[in-house]
């Protein structure tokens, strides 16, 4: 027992030294900025609107979103356009009333006022088949003066009926609703044209990141495509096979890190196709229970889920989801099953800045996002430390700050006529060795300090390993677990 006590002391000492060293590490994720402050009594600041009375019915996304202006300060207009098959596509435009009044005043006094206006952003929801509701924390951008446009893609949400009498939930009559190219080359261009947008940003989440990629790569070249100023891809993927492999990876995978019994049950459900209980696509009880629990691990870590996510979940068009994704989150077997745009991302060119964001606990694992970062000519990458797949709900404050910062830098670069210069964040490809060979001396000096700390940490870890190996009795050594 004395040997174990000495080990504890040594390990504790090493941890303290390592923590002190890395607390001064200069390379950090920008998402750490803007996090909630801690009050003197150790409790995080809680919005005054959140009460704890016995009538509590759940959180709202408005309560979760910091710096969200009141409804009196926002204008929201809705509209529709008819797309293929007579489907009525519904959209929402959020603007700041102050921004609108300022814009009207500028238009009456200056013909060049458009250079001072923030470009609108079109938000592409995920799923496939999920409505836009869960993305509503991003309308905080409208409070900052930027127009935010949401829409429900054809077949889901409020774009799900031809008329009150005829529902289009069955893709049997509308097979293009499970064709990714339809959304990218027909529906989205039609919306942009209908709105009359000359310059705009795209912000896609999950499946919406695939939609954004396909639009940028395949949409007909012309005024509509040329108006794209930048893209933010949140929880992105470009390679279906890599996405599945990464989830099961024993080191970085979310599923690969689960207890063995859970992994075995998930694999059994997949191999036996036992995730559905009948032909009506109703989830089996076991899969539904697993899905509910794992959702709080990797999708939305804010549990219980807030109202905007619940609304989206309750209005998913499962036929579109299954047709494109497949019947389970643990595999890709629908029309997206062969997706791989990674080799084409270089075609985005040097004039289209792209921001990639993901959560530490995201279903989109680091290797999935890193592959995209390496392939995109002008990109930067952010990791949100407390988020699952829906960072706009788990960390709406830092995410909105990162969005605003990126768009502002893109627009300032365009106004000044200078190339956009990506920031170097925690997982930037500019930290890789091959890039260091061509970087300036100042860049090498900037990255020298992290190397020193990494080497110091490695030496301390090696020292700890030797000391533990010397003191711990052989019966306490096991590669599968560690005694503390």
Task: Please characterize this protein's 3D structure.
With 484 residues, the chain is an alpha/beta fold. 40% of the residues lie in helices and 12% in strands. It contains 17 helices and ten strands. The chain has helices at 2-22, 61-64, 97-109, 140-143, 180-195, 207-218, 223-226, 240-248, 260-271, 285-299, 307-314, 318-324, 366-375, 391-394, 396-416, 433-436, 441-471, and strands at 74-83, 87-96, 121-124, 148-151, 161-163, 166-167, 200-205, 228-234, 354-359, 379-384. The strands form two sheets. It has an eight-stranded mixed sheet, with helices on both faces. Strands 5-6 form a two-stranded antiparallel sheet. A hairpin with a 2-residue loop joins strand 5 (161-163) and strand 6 (166-167). The longest helix is centred in the last third of the chain and has 31 residues, at 441-471. Mean pLDDT is 79; it is low at 19-46, 106-115, 427-448 and 466-484.
Features:
single chain, 484 residues, alpha/beta, 8-stranded mixed beta sheet, two-stranded antiparallel sheet, 40% helix, disordered C terminus
Give the % helix. Answer: 40-55%
Query: What is the count of helical runs?
Result: 17
Number of strands: 10
| Class from secondary-structure proportions | alpha/beta
Enumerate the spans where pLDDT stays under 50 for 5 or more consecutive residues.
19-46, 106-115, 427-448, 466-484
| Main sheet record | 8 strands, mixed
β-strand percent reads 5-15%
Question: Outline, from the CA principal axes?
Answer: globular
Distance between the termini: 12 Å
Order of helices and strands: HHEEHEHEEEHEHHEHHHHHEHEHHHH
Instruction: Calculate Rg over CA atoms.
Output: 25 Å
Strand numbers in spatial order across the main sheet: 1-2-4-3-7-8-9-10
Could you report the average pLDDT, rounded to the nearest whole number?
79
